[in-house]
Each structure stands twice: as structure tokens, then as C-alpha cells.
Design a protein that fits this description.
The protein contains five helices and no strands. By secondary structure, the chain is an all-alpha fold. It has a single domain, classed as Cytochrome c oxidase, subunit III, four-helix bundle (Four Helix Bundle (Hemerythrin (Met), subunit A), Up-down Bundle). Helix 1 packs antiparallel against helix 4 and helix 4 runs antiparallel to helix 5. The longest helix has 31 residues.
Length: 200
């Protein structure tokens, strides 16, 4: 009778980080699906713009200030976001706690500015095709900021409790940072469409 070889996997970690985590792959798949949604919305915007004789349709160009402020805030937020991902990889609890509070603030501030951004579009969502598509683009992105903010707030609270400082939570913080990069990256073409294509 042949002897069976059994591997001892008892020393393997229960949760991986980065590409070794199932959550990382789930977040990546979610970003691919949502990125497709953003791409389709931008394609609709460009298609409607190509059909219109005048763009924007029966509306003044949107005010640049609120959208530009959101862009600056999101751009600046990439610095602490990069740092928090590093700190999570190093499993530095104190720095991750501080970083989660900072990123929570960076999730709230653009939403406050966004309150002023919708009226700055200078068109109602139901005015015409132009109004509908710019509100869809802005609304879609706002939904993603809110989604990430909720995740950030939950993780921030967890990192201050006994449930937070473990390998799984540090991996969750890294995944959250990756998703925030996605939120910022998707804003740039939307910002270009809404605020700059109408000025060409």
C-alpha cells in the first residue's frame, strides 16, 4: 500500500492581501463592471453631442468652479490614499487609523461641493437630452463617492475596535484604497466631458 503525502497548511494565513485576497479580485471585477457603465454613459454623451447642432442644447455652459474644486479635492486625496495603502500593507495600525479618518473627510468634502455642482450645471435633468446625460454622469459618479465613503466609514470604525487590527481588515483597507483610485480616475473623463467639451 502506498503512503499518502499530506501537506501541512496550518501555517498559511487565513486571509490574503492584494492579489492574494478574494476580496481584491471581487473589487477588481466590480470596478470593471462599473467602469463599463461609466464608459457607456460617456459614449451616450458623445453620441448625443455628435447629433446636436448646438451643444449644450438650450442651456448655458456649466459653471467651472464646483466641478474644478471636486477635481482638485479628488486629486489631492490620492496622496493620503496611496499612503494608507502602504500603511495597511505594513499593518501599521496607528497610521491606518489616522489615514482612515483623513480619507473619511476626503469622502465627505467632495459630496458637500457636489451639492453646489448640480445647480452649476445650469440645466435640469428633464430639460432635454443634454440635461439628462450630464445629470446621469454626475449622479453616477456621486453614487460611487457615496459607496466608497460608506465603506471607508465602516472600515474606519472597525479599525478603532477590537475587530479591526487583523490581516483581513488591513487587506480590506487596501481594497478600499484601490476602489478610491478608481473613483478618482473615472471622474477625470466625466469632468472633461461635462466642463470642457462644451467649451471647444
Amino acid at each position: 500500500m502506498r503512503e499518502k503525502i499530506v501537506l501541512d497548511l496550518g501555517r498559511l494565513p487565513l486571509h490574503g492581501m492584494g492579489t492574494g485576497s478574494v476580496t481584491w479580485w471581487g473589487t477588481l471585477a466590480f470596478m470593471l463592471i462599473e467602469g463599463t457603465g461609466f464608459a457607456l454613459s460617456i459614449a451616450v454623451y458623445l453620441y448625443l453631442m455628435s447629433l446636436a447642432t448646438v451643444w449644450p442644447i438650450n442651456a448655458p455652459r456649466p459653471d467651472l468652479l464646483p466641478g474644478t474644486l471636486v477635481t482638485l479635492i479628488l486629486g489631492i486625496s490620492l496622496v493620503p490614499n496611496l499612503l494608507i495603502s502602504r500603511w495597511a500593507e505594513q499593518q501599521d495600525l496607528r497610521k491606518v487609523q489616522i489615514g482612515m479618518v483623513i480619507m473619511s473627510i476626503f469622502g465627505i468634502v467632495p459630496l458637500i461641493v457636489r451639492i453646489f455642482e448640480f445647480p452649476a450645471l445650469r440645466v435640469s435633468w428633464d430639460s432635454n437630452a443634454y440635461g439628462s446625460v450630464v445629470w446621469i454622469l454626475l449622479g453616477l459618479h456621486t453614487t460611487h463617492i457615496i459607496t466608497d465613503l460608506v465603506d471607508t466609514l465602516v472600515l474606519a470604525v472597525l479599525m478603532f475596535t477590537r475587530h479591526g487590527p487583523n490581516r483581513r481588515r488591513f487587506g480590506d483597507v487596501q481594497d478600499n484604497a484601490m476602489y478610491w483610485n478608481f473613483v478618482v480616475a473615472t471622474w477625470l473623463p466625466i469632468y472633461g466631458c461635462i466642463y470642457w467639451l462644451v467649451r471647444l
